[in-house]
Every structure is written in structure tokens, then in C-alpha cells.
Design goal:
Helices cover 30% and strands 17% of the residues. The chain is α/β, with parallel strands linked by helices. It is globular. It starts with 23 loop residues before the first strand and ends in a 21-residue tail after the last helix. 40% of the residues are buried.
Length: 405
Amino acid sequence: MHERLRTQPHALRLPFKVDPQKPLLVCFSHLRWDFVWQRPQHLLSRAAKHYNVLIIEEPIFKPGATAHMDISDRPQGVTIAVPILPEGLSHEDVIAEQHDLIEGLIGRESRDSRVFWYYTPMALAFTSDLECDLCIYDNMDELSLFRGASQELLDLENSLFARCDLVFTGGMSLYEAKRHRHRSVHGFPSSIEFNHFSKARAIRQDPDDQAHIPHPRLGFFGVIDERMDVDLVADVAALRPDWHFVMIGPVVKIDPASLPQRPNIHWLGGKSYNELPHYLAGWDVGFMNFALNEATKFISPTKTPEFLAAGVPVVSTAITDVVRPYGEKGLVEIARDAKEVVAKVEAIFARPKEAWLARVDRHLAAGSWDKTWASMHRLMLDVTGDTTADRAASSLPVYATTPAE
């Protein structure tokens, strides 16, 4: 058994910068803050206006390391804590070390008001005995359907449902699947920072690594993993060798050698959130080539409204949360195979863009990440019984918290 450094049952002072006027919000995340800018970053950067936000990520293992927390701040007003653990620990010791490091960081007892915000049920294995005043599960994906998901994850998710006060889901199909598992489940689909992505409509200069790629361009951005139908990219690229496919994003959980290689497919790697509008500005069509498999059954792609805000028409495979509402409203074209993708793209090229863009803007005006966070915060205040002036900051209309969106 690995010998661990014992911590005290409570901490009198948090070893990171806090505003004493704000409660503590501790997020347990399986996603790195610095990886891809997505739902957690959108929400928690807004939460930082109301809370001292501490994000505890999954551990990093280093040979010969002494177990400790690597703590750093981010410009968005959040603090990141990463457990650094020695290599070679058993599963039980990894759990125990994380428990001790977290307890040493924030204390076991909830001496002041604090919120626990879970993105991964796996974190419950080392936090179940720590106190909080409000427990939230932001269920952004059906993790149990991802490659490598374990029975332990399913069991811990059941325990998390039993413990938490609120459940938020990352899409409406996921809401439908989870609504009967808890007394307070609320659907919050992917939203949009319209002003950020709409800048693409006015950008005229290509980034250097895109400037040489001929038009027409079909583009994708996001994590490239088992959710992407790489065969569909290859098939469409073969059918239309004069079209060029610009693929942006880090490759995760799949072998990069498995990605199709053709003269008209361009894998440009990951780009920062701030760079994305500059790439989208040069695309003729957005291509959401998601595979239809267990891992995509309940996804609500954030990139759908982001493409639309950029003014880029989209062709997508038949992802439920894309078909409803975007496909049904005629905002996104839905294709089921390579020949349909070609037909839908050609139809986009043939139609006037102005009427479509006006419908897009009317739809996107109903939602934003600001409104989504405000609606979540209002629900949080309702649970805690907080009727102070903070409520005024969360008084925007509820957006997409029911399946009627």
C-alpha cells in the first residue's frame, strides 16, 4: 500500500486567491480547461462573477513525484487545481491520494457556503464524504456510452443522482433520457456567444495555413475522436475531389494514422477559441460529419449555433439534437450518406443566402451563454433559498429548460 501524506479534516484557509464576499464553487471535471473551449468554460467563466470558482481536474502522473496540487489561475477568473501523483499507484491509491489532496485544499466540512459542480461522476469516488451546501450534476454528455466507459462510472452516476440537488443536461435528447432519474432535471442545450462567432461574417483574410486551400471549402472544428465519421469525410472527398475539407481540432482516443489522407482533405490541428472565427470566415459550408453511434446518441453539438452565428451554412448527419430544432426549422441541412451530403451542399450553393441568414439570426437571438448561466443560477438560488440582490443578476428569462425549445 502506497504511504500517503495525511491531511487535516478541515482547512482553515484556502491556499488560493478568493473574494471573501463570494461563495466557493468547486467543479470536478474530466476535461482540461486549456484543452478545447466548450460548455464548462462558457458556464464557469460566467459563474466566476458570482462565485470563487475552483476547477479540480484529473490527475497528471509523473515518475518519482510527491503527491501535491498544482494550482494556477486563468484570465477568466477561475483557479485550476491539478493533482500531481507518482506513477505506478494502484487504482485505490489514486482515489485515496485525490481525496486527501482535495480535503487538504478545501476542507471536509462546509464552514462557509460552497457548491459542488460535477462534470464526471467518477469524482464522487473521492469526494463523497466532503460537505457542500448545493450539489449540481451538469450532465453534458452520456459518458456511459463513450469508448472505455466502466461499470464503476454507471454506479457512481447513480450515486451522484441520489446526492445532487440539481441536474442540468447538455441537450434535450439527454434531458428526455434523464428526466425521470431525479426530481429536478433541467435541459440546457448548447448555446452561443453570438458576437464572437459573428465576427467571421466581416473577416476577409485567411490564416496562413488556410490561405493556400482552394474553394469550395467544407470545414469542421472540434475534438476529432470516435464521434467523427471519418469514412464519410473520405467518401464525400472522393465523390467531389474539387471540394476541399478543412478539419480543425485535436485528435483524441483514435489513431491519427486512421484519418483519411487525400489531396483535398486538410488536417490543420487544434486552434484556439479566438482563432476560430478567422477560419470559419473562409469556409463555404460547415460539415458536421458525426458518426451515428452510441457516443453521439445524446450529443448537442455546441458548434451548430457557432457555425450559424458565423454565417456558415451547415450540413450535418442526423444527430437528434441537430435535427430538432435546426433541421426541422430549415436552418441546417441533414444528410444520411455521402451522396446526400453532396446533394445538400450543392443545394446550399444554389440558394440565396440572405433569407436563410435572417431566419438563423431570429433563432439565435433567443439564446446565449449569458442567458443559459442566468437561468442555471436562478435555479441554484431557488434551491439555497437565497433572496439577496444576487437574484437580480439572474433575472433573465429561462432559456430552453423544457423540451419545448
